Amino acid sequence: MLLAWVAVTDYVARGAAAALDSLAFIMLVFLCVTLHEFGHITMGRRFGVKTPEVILSPIGGIANMERIPEKPSEELLVAVAGPLVNVAIAIVMMLVFRLDPRQLATIDIATAPLAQRLLLVNVMLVLFNLIPAFPMDGGRVLRAVLAMFMEARKATALAVQIGQVFAFVFVLIGLVRFDFVLLLIGVFIYIAGASEEQSAAFRGFASRLKVKDAMEASPATLSASAPLSQAIETLLASPQREFPVLDGSRLVGLLDRNAMLAGLRDLGAESAIGNAMAEAQPVLPDEPLVDAFTRMRQNGASAAVVVGPSGQVIGLLTQENVAEMMMIESARPGWRFQR
Ligand code: ZN
User: Fold this and answer.
1) Ligand 1 centroid vs 175 CA: distance in angstroms?
2) Which terminus of the chain, N or C, has less C-beta within 10 A?
């Protein structure tokens, strides 16, 4: 859609040649962003971290790494590997196209030749990522450096605070100068900082836990052939909100409160539970909590069913339960959750 939009607007305003030039430019920018992400990914692989997904968005790329290396020195190397790729691209371009670094400041992003614009983009990618605030690479560099001198959790908290000072300054300047983009970046940094702190806290305590430490054991279950009215009665009689649905003793689905209400409204109270349920997301009791929980959130499920070796339901892992554990952890860090 972005490419189509750029091509159409440029074609209408400036003709076919300009549209082609803009298309080439945008695609090359995304290529540079992708190479930047592969800088992070390749360095991550050296420390045994896989990256199953890279997201390219109009405001940049995100490499969704499976985990962040524990050692601060490794996180530091992974964080700087991305911007270093753009430094390398910029140097190669300056050599190949015989561009003088002193000309950089005079390049006009709207009118300069393609090569010069691309060079400028790479320099901007480096500078933007040097801002010491999450989600920019500079924020990770800062956290890694701080973590060499203090506990990981404190390093994250301090890095987030420093990042939020930057966010505040951006918002302030954005407001004073009516600069909408700066304002947006400030808000973006502020939100990213808060979510980074949360996910670091989650990783901190979840890394030592398995699914069985966080699950609710022996949850109430429903039968797929029973009417929805029975599900409603079970909902009212128990504090549980998500129910594994069984066919005999076999797990066939999951029915949560929202699906129950939607079924009640659209299908009626006498319809079978099996018609209203969603797919169950089975997890194993000995699976690391971080993996199971991440998968659950990616699937947009509010709960996952914990199944034993022969497929029998032995527990329920809910977002709510994990959220409660995080509250306990923040009230008393290092709480022993292991069962
Ligand atoms: Zn990066």
Assistant:
1) 27
2) N
